[in-house]
């Protein structure tokens, strides 16, 4: 909850160029260890399921 405003700020446009700046997003991820862990999990083979049959689901 405390990092949410910082994350939303990274999704906004650069005030100087008025373009989306991908570097702000990666700066946010690299400066916080918990987000680095989550993104490395998401981009690994374990974070991308083969299909619906292999997805973890709890209901």
Automatic annotation (TrEMBL):
One function term, GO molecular function aspect: heme binding
GO biological process assignments: hydrogen peroxide catabolic process; response to hydrogen peroxide
Catalase core domain sequence ranges: 1-59
Pfam families according to UniProt: Catalase
InterPro entries, per the entry: Catalase, Catalase_core, Catalase_sf
Methyltransferase is among the record's keywords: no
Gene Ontology cellular component annotations, sorted alphabetically: mitochondrion; peroxisome
Keywords recorded for this protein, A-Z: Heme, Iron, Metal-binding, Oxidoreductase, Peroxidase
Sequence similarity: Belongs to the catalase family.
Record protein name field: Catalase
């Amino acid at each position: 909850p405390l990092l949410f405003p910082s994350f939303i700020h990274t999704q906004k446009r650069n005030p100087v160029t008025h373009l989306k700046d991908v570097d702000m997003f990666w700066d946010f991820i690299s400066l916080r260890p918990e987000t680095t862990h989550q993104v490395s999990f998401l981009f690994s083979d374990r974070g991308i399921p083969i299909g619906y049959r292999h997805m973890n689901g709890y209901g």
